[in-house]
Write a structure and sequence with these properties.
By secondary structure, the chain is an alpha+beta fold. The chain has nine helices and nine strands. The chain has two domains: 90 residues, no CATH class; 153 residues, Schlafen, AAA domain (Methyltransferase, Cobalt-precorrin-4 Transmethylase, Domain 2). A hairpin with a 2-residue loop joins β7 and β8. The longest helix is centred in the middle third of the chain and has 49 residues. It is elongated, with a radius of gyration of 28 Å.
Length: 269
């Protein structure tokens, strides 16, 4: 069960702590930095930084320092408010991620049962060639083609870790080939592939989730429809792919030009 620290700690308590930190910590440190920079020009009863810091802490309790203490208390309280906002936004983002993952987990069996379609494709692996028992970079290019095809059409879902007939294979073999042999390493490898093959802008159109199903981990890639054409880089050649039916097809120059000219209404649907 997740512990919601944002709800457990009242904001008023955080503000008080922040104000105390501002007075007790920020004020002496800021004045210490000032002393280190300009100590030759100042007349203080301190020869060392430690002496100055201790003198400043003692002086901070005097009435003359009240306005300065009030200023740093306000700074500390403001910092506490900012941190509280960051914490709240982070927690909200995590909550949304958990909700999305639960929804996808419920939908996954139905999506697999429906099979491949115009908006769904299965890939057994990202880079591990099961037949040859080795890493095969050509498989990565196949993944990139599929992603480009979805982006140039209506978007879609790419499930990695499934054979064409929907048999669960998982991404465990892929993960073993990576430097970081876990889901984070797999996600980085996939994003790097998109960046290198399709461009940095295309990387913003893929949303990756990992789901446990049938005793294996499935990578579900939700692909957005692109507003601009997405090309696959193949050496010095840019290739244009499109999702048609339950397969991804490369268009020749004339076909690509015709599709690009007509695709704006599609992207806005």
């Amino acid at each position: 069960m997740l512990i919601n620290l944002h709800q457990r700690i009242p904001i008023s308590f955080k503000i008080v702590i922040g104000a105390l930190v501002g007075v007790i910590l920020l004020h002496p440190l800021v004045t210490l930095i000032f002393w280190l920079e300009f100590n030759q020009l100042l007349s203080t009863p301190s020869d060392t930084a430690a002496d100055f810091l201790w003198w400043r802490i003692r002086e901070s309790t005097s009435f003359e320092m009240f306005p300065m203490n009030l200023l740093f208390a306000g700074l500390g309280a403001g910092l506490a408010l900012v941190l509280d906002l960051v914490e709240a936004l982070s927690e909200k983002s995590r909550e949304k991620s958990h909700i999305l993952k639960r929804q996808l987990s419920d939908q996954l069996p139905l999506l697999i049962a429906a099979g491949e379609s115009e908006t769904t494709e299965f890939k057994e692996s990202l880079r591990w060639d099961v037949k040859e028992g080795r890493v095969n970079k050509k498989l990565e290019k196949v993944i990139a083609k599929s992603l480009a095809g979805f982006m140039n059409h209506r978007g879609g879902n790419l499930l990695i870790g499934l054979s064409d007939d929907g048999t669960i294979k998982g991404i465990e073999s892929d993960c073993k080939t990576l430097r970081s042999k876990n889901q984070d390493g797999f996600e980085r490898a996939l994003i790097d592939l998109v960046n290198n093959q399709l461009g940095a802008n295309a990387a913003t159109m893929v949303h990756i989730q990992f789901l446990d199903y049938g005793g294996h981990t499935i990578c579900w890639v939700i692909v957005d429809s692109a507003l601009e054409p997405v090309y696959l880089k193949d050496g010095n050649i840019s290739r244009y792919f499109l999702r048609l039916g339950n397969s991804t097809r490369e268009l020749d120059v004339r076909e690509a030009q015709d599709h690009i000219a007509q695709r704006s209404p599609i992207g806005n649907n």
